[in-house]
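Box 3.1 A note on notation
Throughout this textbook, protein chains are presented in two layers. The first layer is the amino acid sequence; the second is a token string describing backbone geometry. Keep the layers aligned when reading.
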Amino acid sequence: MGNILIVDDNPSILKYIEDILESSGHSIVKCADGMSAIQAVHSDSFDLVISDLAMPGMDGFELVSEIRVLYPDIPIVIITGVGGVDEAVTAIKKGASDFVIKPFQPQEFKVKVEQNLEHYRLKKEIERLKRDRAARGGVTIVGEGPAMKKLKATMKQVARSNAPVILFGESGTGKELVARAIHEESERRDKLFLPVDCSALSETIIESELFGHVRGAFTGADRTKKGLFEEANGGTVFLDEIGNLTWQTQSKLLRFLQEREIKPVGSSKVMKINVRIISATNVNLRKEIENGTFREDLFYRLSGIELLVPPLRDRVDDIPYLVEHFIRKYSRELGKKIDFIEDEALEILKRRGWNGNVRELEHLIEYALVLESQNRIAASTILHILPESKDGGAGPASFEPDLARAVSSFEKEHIVRVIDLARNNKAKAARLLGISRSVLYEKMKKYNIE
């Protein structure tokens, strides 16, 4: 979800656009003129600016120029009246990212907004990955138990190959981290590693995101856009939750794996692309093949090398190493001096089932560090966070036999804890929960969470 600034001197237009975008879960800030918009840009961080062209005082041209001097990367969508194509083109030359002709339909406008937000997100992600790689100098896979030693040894061998890799494992086991480590060990390490969450992209845009599109390919495609495969040429693309791809996109992905070339949506031109595909899933794809929802030929193309990332319950001996790693990580981020975890607290963690795997453990340690005021994580702090008794059992204070009420009670309690962990930052809480901000707000309203 994006934080979007809307600039227009017409209150009805501001309200119209606000209603369209808030229904998709975006945060909206409205300004009635260019000067107040500049002040807003100075005081807040925006993912997109939408501005009318014809405004009194500072018009859209001047606003674009002012924003571009200060923030060259923020996408700016210009709104112009019927017949204003020439003016819109001029705005593009001055630095606008896109334009919309009035009157516009809500769905078409949503597509335009999502395309610009996704392009900006991708650009920021590429920059972040470059910074992370420079600062990190490699990826750390934590674990010294037999399962992880075997996996790390296999990863080093796999990295020398260009064969496609598919990672199996439950949600939260660290499949993306394994994929990054394989990339960092490979000859492609100096090129991009681009992760794609196939479950987060809608059916209407995923094909365009992967393969790109040309101007005019569909409604709202006012400019040519590179796909992720082209962006990552020479590097690695990580397709997470591969089982969520539509049948049509599966067919195009299969063709790419066979021919090593792409054809952007709406184009007749093909391009040779050299990327390595690493995919991941937490579902049984063989069962999906039997059900007719996943292509068998695509599965065998993707599964040149198959790796299983073990769940945390099968690598309990690694919990002390993981806890130590997360204590160091979040102590730095939170500016705290936490040196260790009490033995009793560690024993509690070892007895837990960890349905959320390493991700759940990481969030718990971060939460514990937020609460701690001493130089260690105490057993009492862990027990305060976990709704269970000292022996690690699932001992809730009262037993609820009705399944629906029990699930609702757990969901409400879990959402409250994650919001607390995110320090009331709803966007971060939604990311931690793996849902959109709009869905989080719906659940907060359902459970009367303030």
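The longest strand covers residues 276-281. The chain has 19 helices and 14 strands.
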